[in-house]
Structures are given as structure tokens and as C-alpha cells.
């Protein structure tokens, strides 16, 4: 049976990272180290593949993982078309078993990927919904707070941005936090999510923010997922 | 077990831990989930409430009817409420999450056997985890001359869950609640019952005759919490030798309203066996993000919608239907259809006249057994992951059509939301199905969406209308609209069959 729909891109970040904390980083949130990341996979929706928003998210993940282990080079996105049916989405996720999965998805694809993660019995560390003005995270056991860490990481001075987090493992939810930034969120999100998974500071070193295009004010509505399958 | 897990109401952590161990003894340790990270996909909802209000305490994934019976028995012993789901993809109605926090989700997806498909009788018997895609693949692989009826979320949802929630499809068997035949149910006391002819030992009419003998009880298990359906008989459509999908288009509400009467009469005369009447913006919203259409304040104004229609060369109101039969029957019926629509001012177009059009092809697929997921594009429209379906039920009359559009569209606009709706027109009734798309990242907008849905219920109730189905945030309020007598009857039944309140407390507003 062939069901045509917009596809996901499934790209493998072909490298490994450790939980080491880069000595060059300081201040702000120190994350609770989670399980060691031995391999990572990246899923990006077809409709944003190759766009600035997905490229900066991927760069953010690469930088986050790199700063967890200075020996690693930032990975290249090697797109592999897949996911033309829900069965293929599940198959892709099955293929990522044993990996930490980072995903940046359209709202449409996020629905399918969430269902796929349920089918394969994945652990979902963070499920974030994003746009330029607001970010909302749902987390399970990770009550150190991806949302709070992300808020801390955002740079001041580029407009208002609300960050909210619902943690299933916390009795009461923290109130939404307002920070002064709407830009750079894909890069910083990628960075924070990668660092969250490997433990360490979430401060983004100035050296990785030299490129002007990181400061482009993205207005795309997207969903991020971090999962261990 | 995480210290912060939300427990079933009234249970201590120790008692819950004992229950979990007991459940694990039945279905295996891997099939009882209490890990919070694995619970996240079960807690992810789209309705306008926080996840924590619907957070399950655990998930149990049985493999067999015997597992379900044992789990129900233990649930009675430990007083742990169970929220059964078949595939759990009731998007915009609460997804897989329970009505209240702390319930244990009973995920039946591993019970996914297609037990029988009879091409002569046009019937099937399936378990709750079977999806429409799975059933269609089964039929295709065996080259059986059958079509299935499925909702717009077709491939990934399942016939048992959709039918029990009175979902709607688009072919001859589109009214799913009228096209199932025979249930197997685990009752709240753990007993197993087969309804209708299923109680006759050695009989073979279980999927042939709905009514059996004595009171017809099947309806007790739809939109209810009086049992767990573990098998369902389905009626399928025999694949016709020919079919013809067409559209009738109006640019004004008056014309479309006249069209409602025509569609009803064509259905009552069995010329048409399916029909829908959709507003342009719903179709557009499945393909184009909102910010590409409109960046101003409030709901998208009618003038902008008219401009979109002009650019797209489409009508504001678009009816789609498919004729089935032989070429000769279709030719006669299409002539009847065109003559019937002529006084309404409709432009009636066949597939050839429409030309290549993805929206037309999607609906044609829905009406001819080819599901796709293109309507999931609606989740890219507003962004932010919020979705709540509002679906009032009305008689299929012109005046009710106009009243419904006015009531719903005005109320949505009052709260700044767009009208993304359409009507599924049956013989005598119509479901007015509207998507309330909102941004869950914005707490103010989520609250506004909740208040909007609440007001939609109120203004419809004041005008004599009510939804035929609702999401887990509003089940109690909708039960109130249907009146205290029905609520008391439902409670009486609940107390009689499920005195411990084990099965899905709060479903359809029914508690012990």
C-alpha cells in the first residue's frame, strides 16, 4: 500500500560523544549527567530540510556534542529520505534503537513521530513546541528542567519570549518564564538539548555564535523531540 | 518507580507498587510502564489543557483477552482505574491520555489480529489494535473485492476505537456506529460476553445479524465505560464495478444551504450514499500555513477567504460525493444529481472537469478506499500543536445549516479563531465538524481556546444543539447538556456493572 505524504529526513550524526564537560564553559546551569550518548540520530522534517532553521538546529546539536568532547568535529547532515508512511516512520525509529534521537519536526510530522515513539516504547526526554515568541516543553523524569536551562541560555535583548515546561515528574509545574530573546533559538535549542543529554553547562560559548545568520529571527512553528530508543 | 509519579486517586504508593507488580505478573515486566520518560508519549495531548491534568500513572499493554480479564480482575482488587485505548490516536479528542490524572492506560495495540474477513458476506472480525491501514493491506494482499470505510486520520487509527467513539467515514458504510456487527466485551467483573448472535454456540451469524435476542446491548459499550471491547465485527463495502466522484460548488451561504436539502434528499432516495459539504478554509489549512494567508489580528476575515478562493479558483463551499454502481447506474444517478443541484446555483464538476487537484483526489480516496494522511497538514496551519474538534449534531436542513455556521463561526471569531469546518451529511442528520486550531505554547491562547470551546457548547445548547462526541476536557459538561435523566441512567448502569469504578472513570461524564 502506498500512502503518499510529505516525508521526513532521517540523517545519522556519524560520530560519538561522551559526557565530558568542556573545561572552557562556565556559569549558569550545570546539568545532571544522563546516560552516556554512544550514538545519535537526527530526524528533520522534509519541509524544513536544508532551511536555515534546521541547519542552525543541527549546528547547535553538533556544537553541544562537540563541547562535551572536544575531539569531535561537527557532523554533516546527510539526508536520507524516508518516512513516506507511518510504517516507515516506525521503521526509521526502530532503526535508531540504541541511539539518542534528536528531531526537529513540523507539527504534522510531530504527531506521527510521537505515535511512533509510543509504538517502539521509546523514552521521551523532552518534547518541545517552538516558535519565535514561545517555547513549551513536556518532560518526563528530566525535572532539572530543559525549559529553564534553555531560558538561561538565550541571549538578552531581542524581544520577549515565553518559555514554559510541564514536567510529569514534578508535582507542580513551574510558572512560565519570560526572557528577552526570540532569535537564535534553533541553534541554542540544539545546543541545550545536546548538552542536556550529555551533562554539563548550557552556556553557549561566544566563539560558536560568530556567524551572523544564527541571529536571524526565525518564525517557523516547530517541534523538537529528544528520545532514547 | 519515580517518587513523583501521579498515583490513582485514593491509592498509596505502596498499594500502587503492589498493583504494578501484580500486573507485571500477568503481562510481563516490559509491558507495564511506570517510567516517566516512557509515559510522555501517552501524556502528549492537543486539547486546551495541561498534560498534567491527564497524566497516566502507568500503562499496561496486554496481548490477549485472558490478559485483559486478569488485569481487570486485579484492577478490582487493587482499585486501580483503567483507561482502555485501542490505538490511542483520538487526536483533538484527548489522544491516548485518560480523562483524569492517575488512571492506568490499558493500551490494546498488541491485540492486533485480523481474525476473519469474509469477502462474500462483506464482513470482518478484528481486535482493537488493528489499524485501518493494516486491514486495507490485508484486503489488498488477498485481492479481495472490498473497500473499508475510515475517518480522515485513516491509516493510523483503528476501526474499533473509531467506531466506539462514533467516528465517521466516507463510503457506503461511513456511519461506523451503524456498520459494526457483534462485540466481544470484557465486563468490569472480568466476565467475557459476546453480544448479538455471538452467544450462540457453533453459530456463524455473529457478523451477519446485529440484533440477536432480547435487549440490544451493544450501544452500552460505545462512548461508555461499562466494558472493554476486545473484538468487533465490521461491515465492509463490496467494491463496486464503477464509481464517480464529483463536486458541487457554491460561493454563497444561501446556495450551499439549498444544497444541504438537496444532499439530504439524494441520500434519502439512495441516489447518494455519502456526502460532505466543506468550507474552503479547511481544505486550504491542510496545505498552507496560516501566516502565509493572513497576518492581521483576529480570525481570517471573509474578504480574505474570498480572495483566497478567487486565487485558487475554488468555491467557498464545496460538496463532494461519490456515486457507486455500474457505469449505467452511475450515468443515470449523475443526471439526477445535476438536475437536483441546478436550482441551487451550484456548479457541478466531475473529476475530468476539476482536473488534477490534490484536495479532490484526497476526498476521492477517502470515498474509494484509499486512505492518506494529507489532512494532518492542518497541524502545520496555526502551529503550536493545539487541536480540539468541535462537532455539533443537527438535522440536515437548510435553516439548521445556516444557524450552525453563524453560531460556530461567530463564536470562534469572538475568541480570535478561524472557522475550519465542514458538514458530513447523513440521511436525516449532519455532523458539523470544526477544528479549533490553537497554539499550545501560548498559555493565554490555550486558555482562550478552552473558553471558546466552552462558549461554543453553551451557545449551541441554548439553540438546541449538542456535540455528538467530545474531548476529555469537556466530557462532564457535555453530559450535563444531555440532561440529568440521561446522566442518572448512565450512573445507575455504571454502579450496577462497575461498582468499583474500574473502567475509564469520567468517560462521557460517567462516574460511579
UniProtKB/TrEMBL annotation, chain B:
Xref: PROSITE patterns: FAD_PCMH
Molecular function (Gene Ontology), one example: D-lactate dehydrogenase (NAD+) activity
Cofactor(s) listed: FAD
Single Gene Ontology BP annotation: lactate catabolic process
Domain annotation FAD-binding PCMH-type: ranges: 52-239
Organism superkingdom: Bacteria
Keywords assigned by UniProt, alphabetized: FAD, Flavoprotein, Oxidoreductase
Pfam family, one: FAD_binding_4
Protein name stated in the entry: 4-cresol dehydrogenase
Amino acid at each position: 500500500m502506498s500512502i503518499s505524504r510529505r516525508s521526513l529526513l532521517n540523517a545519522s550524526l556519524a560520530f560519538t560523544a561522551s559526557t565530558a564537560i568542556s573545561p572552557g564553559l562556565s556559569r549558569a546551569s550545570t546539568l545532571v549527567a544522563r546516560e552516556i550518548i554512544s550514538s545519535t540520530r537526527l530526524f528533520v522534517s522534509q519541509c524544513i530540510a536544508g532551511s536555515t532553521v534546521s541547519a542552525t538546529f543541527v549546528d547547535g546539536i553538533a556544537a553541544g556534542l562537540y563541547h562535551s568532547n572536544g575531539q569531535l568535529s561537527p557532523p554533516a547532515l546527510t539526508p536520507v529520505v524516508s518516512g513516506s508512511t507511518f510504517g516507515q516512520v516506525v521503521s526509521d525509529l526502530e532503526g535508531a534503537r540504541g541511539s539518542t534521537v534528536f528531531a526537529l519536526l513540523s507539527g504534522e510530522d510531530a504527531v506521527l513521530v510521537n505515535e511512533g515513539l509510543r509504538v517502539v516504547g521509546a523514552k521521551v526526554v523532552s518534547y518541545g513546541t517552538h516558535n519565535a515568541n514561545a517555547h513549551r516543553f513536556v518532560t518526563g523524569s528530566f525535572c532539572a528542567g530543559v525549559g529553564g536551562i534553555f531560558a538561561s541560555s538565550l541571549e538578552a535583548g531581542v524581544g520577549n519570549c515565553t518559555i514554559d515546561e510541564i514536567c510529569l515528574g514534578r508535582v507542580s509545574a513551574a510558572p512560565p518564564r519570560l526572557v528577552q530573546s526570540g532569535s537564535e533559538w534553533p541553534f541554542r535549542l540544539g545546543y541545550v538539548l545536546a548538552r542536556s543529554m550529555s551533562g554539563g553547562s548550557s552556556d553557549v560559548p561566544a566563539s560558536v555564535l560568530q556567524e551572523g545568520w544564527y541571529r536571524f529571527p526565525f518564525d517557523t512553528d516547530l517541534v523538537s523531540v529528544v528520545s532514547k530508543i | 518507580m519515580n517518587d513523583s509519579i501521579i498515583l490513582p486517586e485514593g491509592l498509596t504508593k505502596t498499594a500502587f507498587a503492589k498493583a504494578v507488580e501484580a500486573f507485571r505478573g500477568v503481562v510481563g515486566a516490559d509491558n507495564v510502564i511506570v517510567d516517566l520518560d516512557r509515559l510522555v508519549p501517552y501524556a502528549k495531548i492537543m486539547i486546551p489543557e495541561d498534560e498534567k491534568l491527564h497524566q497516566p500513572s502507568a500503562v499496561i499493554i496486554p496481548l490477549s483477552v485472558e490478559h485483559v480479564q486478569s488485569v481487570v480482575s486485579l484492577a478490582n482488587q487493587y482499585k486501580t482505574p483503567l483507561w482502555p485505548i485501542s490505538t490511542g490516536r483520538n487526536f483533538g479528542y484527548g489522544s491516548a491520555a485518560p480523562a483524569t490524572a492517575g488512571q492506568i492506560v490499558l493500551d490494546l495495540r498488541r491485540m492486533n489480529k485480523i481474525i476473519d474477513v469474509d469477502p462474500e458476506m462483506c464482513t470482518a472480525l478484528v481486535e482493537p489494535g488493528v489499524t485501518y491501514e493494516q486491514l486495507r493491506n490485508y484486503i489488498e494482499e488477498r485481492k479481495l473485492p472490498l473497500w473499508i470505510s475510515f475517518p480522515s486520520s485513516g491509516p493510523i487509527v483503528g476501526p474499533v476505537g473509531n467506531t466506539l467513539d462514533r467516528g465517521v467515514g466516507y463510503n457506503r458504510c461511513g456511519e461506523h456506529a451503524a456498520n459494526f456487527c457483534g462485540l466481544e466485551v470484557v465486563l468490569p467483573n472480568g466476565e467475557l460476553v459476546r453480544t448479538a448472535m455471538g452467544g450462540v454456540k457453533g453459530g456463524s451469524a455473529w457478523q451477519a445479524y446485529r440484533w440477536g435476542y432480547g435487549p440490544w446491548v451493544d450501544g452500552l459499550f460505545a462512548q461508555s465505560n461499562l466494558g472493554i471491547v476486545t473484538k468487533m465485527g465490521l461491515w465492509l463495502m463490496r467494491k463496486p464495478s464503477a464509481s464517480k466522484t464529483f463536486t458541487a460548488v457554491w460561493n454563497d451561504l444561501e446556495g450551499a444551504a439549498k444544497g444541504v436539502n438537496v444532499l439530504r434528499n439524494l441520500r434519502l432516495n439512495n441516489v447518494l450514499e455519502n456526502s460532505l459539504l466543506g468550507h474552503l478554509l479547511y481544505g486550504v489549512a491542510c496545505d498552507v500555513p496560516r501566516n502565509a494567508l493572513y497576518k492581521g489580528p483576529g480570525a481570517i476575515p471573509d474578504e480574505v477567504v474570498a480572495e483566497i478562493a478567487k486565487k485558487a479558483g475554488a468555491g467557498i463551499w464545496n460538496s463532494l460525493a461519490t456515486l457507486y454502481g455500474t457505469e449505467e447506474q452511475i450515468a443515470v444517478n449523475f443526471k439526477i444529481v445535476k438536475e437536483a443541484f441546478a436550482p441551487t446555483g451550484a456548479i457541478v464538476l466531475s473529476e475530468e472537469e476539476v482536473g488534477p487537484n490534490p484536495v479532490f483526489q484526497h476526498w476521492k480516496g477517502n470515498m474509494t478506499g484509499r486512505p492518506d494522511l494529507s489532512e494532518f497538514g492542518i497541524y502545520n496551519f496555526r502551529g503550536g500543536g493545539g487541536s480540539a474538534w468541535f462537532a455539533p449534531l443537527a438535522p440536515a436542513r437548510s435553516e439548521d445549516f445556516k444557524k450552525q455556521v453563524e453560531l460556530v463561526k461567530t463564536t470562534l471569531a469572538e475568541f480570535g479563531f478561524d472557522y475550519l469546518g465542514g458538514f458530513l451529511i447523513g440521511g436525516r442528520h449532519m455532523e458539523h465538524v470544526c477544528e479549533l486550531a490553537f497554539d499550545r505554547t501560548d498559555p493565554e491562547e490555550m486558555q482562550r481556546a478552552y473558553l471558546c470551546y466552552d462558549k461554543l457548547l453553551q451557545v449551541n445548547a441554548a439553540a438546541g444543539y449538542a456535540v455528538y462526541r467530545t474531548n476529555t476536557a469537556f466530557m462532564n459538561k457535555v453530559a450535563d447538556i444531555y440532561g440529568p435523566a440521561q446522566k442518572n441512567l448512565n450512573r445507575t448502569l455504571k454502579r450496577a456493572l462497575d461498582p468499583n469504578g474500574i473502567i475509564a472513570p469520567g468517560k462521557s461524564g460517567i462516574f460511579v
